[in-house]
Amino acid sequence: MTLSSPLAPSKLEKLKKLTGKGRPAAEAPVRSPVRLSFLSAQRDFPLVIEATGTDLDPVAWAREQRGFIESMLRKHGGILLRNLGLNSPQDFEAFAETIEPELYGGYGDLPKKEGGRNTYRSTPYPERQMILFHNESSHLERWPRKQWFFCELPSPVGGATPIVDCREMLRRLPADLVDEFERKELLYVRTFTPGLDVSWQDFYKTDRREVVEQRLAAAGIEWRWLDEDTLQTRTRCPAVMRHPITGERVFFNQVQLHHVSCLDPEVREDLLALVGIDRLPRHVCYGDGSPISDATMAVVGEAYEACAVRFDWRQGDVVMLDNMLAAHARDPYEGPRKIVVAMGAMYDRAALQSQPGERSGTPSTDMAVSPSVVSSLAD
Length: 379
Known about the structure:
Double-stranded beta-helix; seven-stranded mixed beta sheet; 12 helices; 18 strands; 28% helix; globular; AlphaKG_dependent_hydroxylases; oxidoreductase; Taurine dioxygenase, alpha-ketoglutarate-dependent; 2-oxoglutarate-dependent dioxygenase activity; TauD/TfdA-like
């Protein structure tokens, strides 16, 4: 079988080639709706996802790219999302619900956001003081794996939400110190005193003592009533855990937030004078009851600051964290500031400890990513 030779082009076709007339228009490249980058060339934490135009539907995008978002969260530990067109707390809640349909609405440590179903206002803590680094609810029997922060209104001065990669924390801390934390664990002592910190009624969402006692007993938490309306709980928790999905070891705790040496000196003196060491609203020691030295906490604090990533909030920004891979804090600020919080994918400590396969260290397979939806990190 022979192939016929191609027909010679006609004069008209030659003319069209010379003039460009009749040439089919080249297809415009598909423009990615988002661009990926990092805040610094030295770190891949957090990943920055930024809309490239103004026509992105954030909820539709999140629905289509839920698997991609999840895989990037597991890889990087934190995602900063910008310019998505989230203009209100309601927009933000709809966006977060698309990623995690069952947002957690029963958290007692934060006040509920007005107008929201399962969102919260940020911690009502004095503006001029820093909220130290912590993993949300790591001192409790249940915690969220996913946490979101939405900037409704950035403060004019300060007010950053520093974030830390908890895998990097383990790499930076001295090995013998990590070993001590891992062996001894932590004992969190919390005292719910009327007028100091959150009340036990607000935290447990009930004013019935017997209901609180039943919940504490079911969770294996020790408790005692110091007086008619002052509840003290004692909870032993790991300081280092293995992520149940990625298998990575992480520095997962609230040791800095609870240790008395980390308080502002003036606040520390006032609290100790008012209630004494045994009735501090929050206190922590090693799991065997031995004290954690101020020198140890200084090393921990230096490591947190060495790992900390800070950025200026922009209105509409969202930070999404894997709460087990990343810790967060709050810098002092001046002026009005509104940050809205959401959380979901709740984990139960007892359930994780009863399922060794969950902590075997075998990383899960990342979900497929639609290649047309993201542009190169080099953009």
